[in-house]
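Continued from yesterday's entry.
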Amino acid sequence: MSVPTPPRTIHIGLAGLGNVGAGVFKNLMQNGDLIRQRTGADIRVKRVVVRDLQRPRDVVVPEAMLSTQWQDLIADEEIQVVVELIGGTTTAYDLVCAALRAKKIVVTGNKALLAERGQELFALAEQCGVPIYFEAAVAGGIPIIQVLQEGLVGNRILSIHGIINGTCNYILTRMSQASLSYEDALREAQEKGYAEADPTLDVSGWDAAHKAIILASLSYGFWIPTPCVHVEGVDKIDIVDFKFAKRLGYTIKLLSVIRADEQGLVEVRTQPTLVPLSHVLANVSGSFNAVLVNGDIVGETLFYGRGAGQDPTSSSVISDLCEAAAVLVYGARHSGFVPHGLYGKSKPIEDTVSHYYLRLTVDDVPGVLAQVSTVLGQRNIGISSMIQPEDLEDTSGSTSLVLMLHDASLGDMLKALDALCSLACVRGKPSWMRVETLQG
């Protein structure tokens, strides 16, 4: 009978003890025995860097472990893995670069850092011969990074459709199900802890867009430039659009869409989108996330779970720590991002094509539809259906005109919108959204 090999101790340095950092510390202690049995490694936090030593925290950390200088993690030769959970793209970048140069494995949940500076960081990781792990950067506790890197490695990724921001999904769910205004739904999300005091990064769409850039870059083998990504937020959606969408058989979701065309040009966009009520993504509610991946071999696969929160996100960080431990105990892995030459160009966003939903407030007079149709026709945009619900008309001499439009490029659509705004019969700014023709 063989004697079990004693677990090897892996010392980690933890930068950031906020919500996720506290969860990592707590859950490593709670499930340490399980992790040792499964990995052959005893993963121990040796030092924790925080901004304020006096700030009350959810976990008790021995005072001797605390520091306010991230450089202490680099200087400590026993620390083999640095976990970056401080956020931002400046200090975090300096910390990650220093860790890589010191030959320390990096684990991060920083989607903004990777989306904006990932190309530089992964090149440095390759040069230094140490990996970066980043499962927690996208979709909280859903292991979507591992799926793309390992589970679907033999597939060409045809498309990804993702609801990957829990704050926006909660807001849109409440607007849809409880008929709340955007402002009231946001206030409720903040009260329940689903939205930050300053929700700009979430409601602008950029949090989801950063995650989409990471998923697209993994799927297509080159780092997607941020300027090539189309982003719109949820803060301009009116409750009336949910009513019209429902009549048409849709609901509204902040959807990230990633796909390559026949020429290998890759489009990446995040925007409020009409999704068919019959499709599974329409039923992803509250703060939950879902990622629908379509591979050429596997077909469609759906990954669903909580996209944020202390425990789900710390679960992903701990998964990466176990991967890092495997590298240290059993041997080398790749740097975390493997470029390849099958793709390599982003599709100009104005060339991306989809159906559209368009709501206009117009004068309630004859000839309006003819004027609108002419403007659209001049841009080769066809109308597939129209509704003009009498029960939503006001008494000010105007009415709502809701159109579902055939496939059109974004460039043509934007030109048409400018022309429509110049019509004397159109009041205010049009409300418009893309429509995804997903099969239920």
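--- second protein ---
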Amino acid sequence: MTITAPIDEPEYETLAQDTHGKVLRPGDDDYDEARSIWNAMINKEPAVIVRPAGAADVMTAVAFARDRDLLLSVKGGGHNVAGNAICDDGITIDLSSMSSVRVDPTSQTARVGPGATMADLDHETQAFGLATPGGVISTTGVAGVTLGGGIGWLSRKYGLSIDNLRSVDVVTADGELVTATEDENQDLFWAIRGGSGNFGIITSFEFDLHEVGPEVLFGPIVYPYEDAADVLTRYEEFTRGAPRECTVWANSVAAPPLPFLPEAIHGTTVLILMGFYAGDLEEGEAVLEPLREYGDPIADAVEPMRYTEVQSLLDELYAEGARNYWKAPNFTALSEETIDSIIEYANQSPTPQSEVLIHQVGGAVNDVASDATAYPHRDTEYIVTVGARWEDPAKDDECIAWVRKCHDALAEVATGGTYVNFEGDREGREQNAYSGNYDRLVELKNEYDPENIFRQNQNVKPTDWGQYQ
């Protein structure tokens, strides 16, 4: 498939007339805002950006791109670290206008538009004391986090986002709108649950909801980094026996200037255990007590707080506008070698905002068979994200090199898998992301998108993709 030059005036006018939402070109008032995304490393200029008002506009835009051999990208929340949402010279479908959330408290389900963020979803569901697993930053798009799997504070208790997905409406590569569920278009539904946008554009998600909050137990326990080896060993032991209501993540990072931390440690490397408990608060206090009493922590700010507050508490630390690069190997255990590598590279961090973050998984996530959904990593107990974050473009090479060196050291004892939503490279890691399900994904790509129209992602290439290039 040949990527053509920018769209000429008659074609643009046709697209604008056929679209109920906005159609933007370079120079239009909202164009630069529409092409901006969370990761400031990504600076691309689509020939045209379509902001659909509904599914009909998405169908129109897909057909327009397909008929003109235009590169196509899809922007939900724009939070993907690899920058898949935006393309150069092609067409970007910006779904931000389709952000509605409709909750049915009787059936405990929610209908969610593809432009909704976690803040939109949590605001509506928590009005009824309900929630579904998703991202832990409120500006994260529901669509992107779901299509890659969907890991959050509730996942150990209720599974991944995809494990709570009842149905989707999806615009396929031929521009048709179909519904996929466990009973209808089952293969497509299987592929969408972890296939990372390779099979179409979702125009509506239907999720199961669960009773959560409104208050949960949450907060950081901060340790001096000279104690990191002992604390991480203790952390591994603790998390192995923790109930599913409990999730604890461990972050090696420079201490931020938070009011409960002594000024003397601001900017120095510390180990932060982020404890979460979704259940009876007194029970949660008892569950987390062994972590809070271990060693000599600098600070302990675990306390009851509203679930919506938990979901937005980290927003400022991960705000839009910085440059970011991540890699994230999976682990079934945290060995002494893994802990040593984390400590070694955290002490070499290139910027204060960079981190090595351990996400505890397991629990309900691992109740599902590895081939039940496209997301295959059902043996993963921990994901270790090596994340560089910086502002100065002159530091690009240094920060990227640090992430890759740390990743390579960790990968020696990792499972070989990676969580697709945490992967900073857009190409070259597909086999690691999709693992044993990759071949089936290729077969379904051949069926649903043989010309690889949906390729701005961690791409599953169709078998005959070469003939279209």
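The chain has three domains: 12-94, 101-211, 215-422. The mean pLDDT is 93. Will compare against the first tomorrow.
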